[in-house]
Amino acid sequence: MGFRLAAGAAMLGLVTGVAGCAGGSAGAVKGPSGGGSSNSAASTGASAAPAPPGGAPAGGAGVLPQLPGQAFYVSDQTSAARQLSALRGQGRTAEADTLLRIAAQPSSQWLGDQAARGIAEQVSRRAAAADRTPVFVAYNIPHRDCGLYSAGGAPDAAAYRSWITGLAEALGDRRAWVVLEPDAVAHTLDTCGVKGDAAAERYGLLAFAVQELKKRPQVRVYLDAGNPGWVQDPSALAEALRKSGVASADGFAVNVSNFSTTDRNATYGAQLSALLDGKHFVIDTSRNGNGPLSGEAWCNPPGRALGAPPTADTGRPGVDAYLWIKNPGESDGECGRGEPRAGEFWLPYALGLAQAAG
Fold first, then answer.
1. Which parts of the chain sit beneath pLDDT 70?
2. Is 250 labeled as catalytic in the residue annotation?
3. Given 183, 190, 224, 284, which residue is catalytic?
4. CA–CA separation, 132 vs 239, rounded Å?
5. One of 145, 250, 284, 320 is an active-site residue; which one?
6. Of the listed 113, 190, 320, 332, which one is catalytic?
């Protein structure tokens, strides 16, 4: 099974984050080694699908500086940035200083539901004005997360195609990287139930999404490819990715919302790349600083740490970037220990990730 995490994206003061998928990255994917992802979009924070009720506060957290030499956009509208502003306003300086380790880094903007178009346009315009590249996560595939923590998505194929077309139009001629549909491909190869005609439809929708997004000259697209502990047959995964249009994409993404180490993901990605004519890939390093807790501990496992900061300078052949695709501090879901819903920001967990990173 895939195991998703809640990556979540904050809505530009427009909408709240979305709940995460239990199967993939967006929500909270389950599966060996933590399966897929648990999203932030769905928790996707950007108007993502099953977003928590309520809207993001207007105004934002105050401008955060763009780091020198950083290629990717640091938004002041992430959950961490807004919480940082609140902590400072309350005089909680020590906690604010710790949380800054997250808020000052570029995190992805998760997109789901109908607010996605406006969010994508606003974020991409702000990033362009800062001469930085925003990273988006498109997370709206029908039957998302197999109906688990990050359940939701477009109601049918026609609605999804319309949504993707609108998203591509919103990005226009501005720079952007898009991680496409965490868990969607891997879930066709596990126990999710997306099989036969349903799987064929999903592959077609993903291929359509790649095609539409790549019509935009400065948009790079990375199709989600699960993580090292999920799909056990690399050849089957490669074939599913080919059916999903990876040949026309810039590459694929691994470890979305998961905790596998960067070294393990680099090996996994290289093996998959060899089956895909050398396609490049990106690695989600948002919470893999201490690696996984155990094979099945995917839902808000304790003792985890922030991983390598986002960068396009990885020093690894074929690895285009380390990205914080999952938004650190956003819950993977209600795991039975009193945690918030998938995609909701959880300050104690965020502080723990930052403190464990040293």
1. 1-63, 147, 295-296
2. no
3. 183
4. 34
5. 145
6. 332
With contact defined as beta carbons under 8 Å apart, do 206 and 138 qualify? no
For 298-311, the pLDDT digits (tens) are: 899 999 999 999 99
**Residue 99 structure tokens:** 């949380």
- The tokens for 155 are 């109601």
Apex 177 CA angle, 118 and 105, nearest 5: 90
Rounded CA separation 140/250 (Å): 20
pTM for the whole thing? 0.87
In the chain, how many H helices and how many E strands?
A: 8, 7
CA 27, CA 37: separation in Å to the nearest integer?
A: 6
**What is the distance between the alpha carbons of residues 123 and 141, in angstroms, rounded to a whole number?**
22
Residue 203: per-residue pLDDT: 98
C-alpha 145/C-alpha 63 separation (Å) is 34
Task: Establish whether 183 is a catalytic residue.
Answer: yes
Question: Judging by beta carbons within 10 Å of its beta carbon (0-12, 13-18, 19+), is residue 53 exposed, middle or buried?
Answer: exposed
Q: Is 332 a known active-site residue?
A: yes
